[in-house]
Known about the structure:
Blueprint: E1 5-9, H1 13-25, E2 29-33, H2 36-45, E3 50-54, H3 62-72, E4 77-82, H4 89-95, E5 100-103, H5 109-127, H6 137-143, H7 151-164, E6 170-173, H8 180-189, E7 198-202, H9 211-216, E8 217-218, E9 230-231, H10 233-236, E10 241-245, H11 252-264, E11 266-267, E12 276-277, E13 281-286, H12 290-295, H13 301-307, E14 310-313, H14 324-335, E15 340-341, H15 343-350, H16 357-371, E16 376-377, H17 384-405, H18 429-437, H19 439-443, H20 447-470, H21 481-495, H22 500-507, H23 511-521
Parallel strand pairs: 1-2, 1-3, 3-4, 4-5, 6-13, 6-14, 7-10, 10-13, 15-16
Antiparallel strand pairs: 8-9, 11-12
Amino acid sequence: xxxxxxxxxxxxxxxxxxxxxxxxxxxxxxxxxxxxxxxxxxxxxxxxxxxxxxxxxxxxxxxxxxxxxxxxxxxxxxxxxxxxxxxxxxxxxxxxxxxxxxxxxxxxxxxxxxxxxxxxxxxxxxxxxxxxxxxxxxxxxxxxxxxxxxxxxxxxxxxxxxxxxxxxxxxxxxxxxxxxxxxxxxxxxxxxxxxxxxxxxxxxxxxxxxxxxxxxxxxxxxxxxxxxxxxxxxxxxxxxxxxxxxxxxxxxxxxxxxxxxxxxxxxxxxxxxxxxxxxxxxxxxxxxxxxxxxxxxxxxxxxxxxxxxxxxxxxxxxxxxxxxxxxxxxxxxxxxxxxxxxxxxxxxxxxxxxxxxxxxxxxxxxxxxxxxxxxxxxxxxxxxxxxxxxxxxxxxxxxxxxxxxxxxxxxxxxxxxxxxxxxxxxxxxxxxxxxxxxxxxxxxxxxxxxxxxxxxxxxxxxxxxxxxxxxxxxxxxxxxxxxxxxxxxxxxxxxxxxxxxxxxxxxxxxxxxxxxxxxxxxxxxxxxxxxxxxxxxxxxxxxxx
Length: 545
């Protein structure tokens, strides 16, 4: 696979050489490092796509190096290798963020090639920042799970997808409203239990005296009112997934029973004498720091480590603001497919701190949809707290702008309104561009200012096209060869005021060739501004009207 850089980190030179030869025959670019220090050097200097890392290195261990690689290059897929693995090594490898795990000696050398190819293909998909192209995208779309395009969320869901089929317990941490239950549903849908039941329960919402009955059920006559046997959630979810939200709220007595069922797969109903078997995949969630609860002795340490098979932490919305526009548009479509949201309203949403996270954003959009009496959601349709928060920010930035620029505008104008850069944060980009589309705005600019504007517009175009490609958005089709040729000729003629000799010279072709192509494509030459065919650089004396 050409264009893919592979790093082999192993202190056994024979293994490194063997794997290197195999991969080079397949077109890979391969580097070999004998220790962690050499590997870190390669990672910092070269854009490595796949790294095969031995767990036991002279100066470090594979898990430590894995974390360092992911910190420097999150898109690098790491395959861990060892000859001294234990049954839990593979699980720990995936939990730590590795793509996969290989045991040494290799049973089949082609297995290495296959795994590297899969890792490289997967990494390329992820590098494009196109969630629509990720393996897990169809599952997320089916659930209505809006992952967004931020690297932190894509990486989180990537790990969740990898561990979904491992059938190990998962602990999800995150602030209220970040979408912990949705992530749990995604893990269930991507698992081998997807055809079985998914039961969510909020432990904090259950009455304390009924928690045990709800979770484990009860026998007939176990207490007053127990007129019949009742199955609990652990029994009903057998074969499927049980999601326990706000797990930190359960009492110490319930924690003991939870530990028992996680260790043995069996429990007693309230009032029962016979153990009931269950096969449940448990996903727990909390918005508090359970490690702090361990210190305060309010949560059992042994239960914590049982729950924390893999720990996933959902970032708050304020730490992934690039996802806000996508989420806002999704919630608008969901509430009313006929509505649109203005760019200014989106800008206000992006500037808000979102203490209630995605849930709060969903509520704000629903309110805005209800208040909107037109076809577009405007800033005035948003909650007052959004506008209030933004007005504070604008006032602060306005003060800073005055202090930095004084009375002189970005292009030397004494008027703040007349300055091209003044108040930029108060206007959306389309509004600012519309302002410069007006002829008067450009006519008054100096030559230096016009050149500066042109350069910035060209850079903006390149940047927009680059971001669109990263997001998987389709821009205009690239021009055909003939179209590109017409454009190049037209721009050269325009630049040289229609002087064919000068235009041909700048294009690197002969004058006759250029004349033929002008006729071939039917290009019209604008009337020259100068009276001499030599153009603006002619030193002859001419009389001009």
